[in-house]
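Hey, resending since the last one bounced:
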Amino acid sequence: MTTDQILSLGPELAGFLDEFDDCFGRSEPRSHLANYVRGQLSNLPRKSAEPLAIFAGVAPRTLQEFLGTDEWDHEKLRDRTQQIAARDHADDQAIGVIDDSGHSKKGNHTACVSRQWCGNKGKVDNCVVTVHLTFVSYDMRFRTMLDSTPFLPEKVWDDPARRRAAAIPDAVVYRPKYAIALEQLDRAEANGVRFGWITADEWYAMMPPFLEGLEQRGRRFVLEVPRDTRGWLFFPGNTGVEPKRIDNLCRYSRPMMQQPWTRFHIKDTGNGPQVWEVKATAFWMMLGGELRGPYWLVYARNVLDPAEEKYFLSNAAPGSPLEAILHVAFGRWPIERCLEDEKSELGLSHFEVRKYESMLRHLLITQVSHLFLARQNCRLRGKKSGGHDLPSTDCRRRLDRRSAALPSRSTKTTRKSREENPTPTTTNRRRAEKPYQNTFEPVETIKHRY
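The structure tokens again:
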């Protein structure tokens, strides 16, 4: 944004930032927040503390101290960001998207830095990794970052002297990324945020404690799972049948082979429409030493490139439209867009600080700036998110998903039947907001010790 554009939004920005006044005990740090946010919204090429201070016409040390030593409640700032999103953008079908991101850094003095996988570079690099939770309206028109937490690598930061130099609090210890993500979900819920769905990529889905954590919290999820995930397409009981990989089950099992492909238009892209063809069935798996299921197992392949395949696992209730499950399954792109916007437009990765709290404060202030931009975008669209006729978000009373996930019963597939009922070639463009139709009675969660 140019200086003129920022000035034109001055009254709205001032009113927005007033909601954070009680995060500050004194007027000075309160004014520094306004300077920091205005600088992030500007067209400055670099958005670390020094250029932001120069842009605001104050001494560079003022914003450096604002991040490092000034007394103000950054946790309340994060909570208020979430409370505003919950109050003004409530959507009972909202999607919570979880992901992490790397920020390349030089040297080894910045808190949490380590040689580790840096997703945006696609290789191991010297970087800081942060875990993020994004709020996305079901129609994908509104999206904003709700939480950002630095990831402390295991063992690398065990040296007490190094921790003191980076001012890492004693309470900050190594926690797996999936544990951080679950904590972020709990924090958002405590601040009034309600998600209808949770989604994440393969890395999170392959962690049994993450799946268990979602189940324990009654969260409805759609997760992309690795092809080597193992389970059954029937309730195995005490049959002694070993679990099989889902890629083999999807290709060679009778329920999948006898089921025709159904094509779905996922979205329009710059390269044309994105169309995938899909099959779905019931699935049981071992989780936490117990047999759990049935889940939805969704097998999808790209129409334009059939070698590109995806596998999704969902605990959605019976009667949930398959279109809705796919809408969420392919709905991770908003967090990638949020990260791209925050990095390219707001300077998310531009922190030039070594102390843990300074870095965390920069991340959380960037969320404030992003929320303001998201609200302005929503205002200009003239549309408020919400109001979708879809299944209830309450997963604490689980429903038997077998009838919903299994294909309709059919006779044995023959050459004649295939000729009379060929695989569909038309693309399904039904809206994901298809009305919910559930004719199944609630039953207890199916959990059997193997």
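The mean pLDDT is 86.

Sorry for the duplicate.
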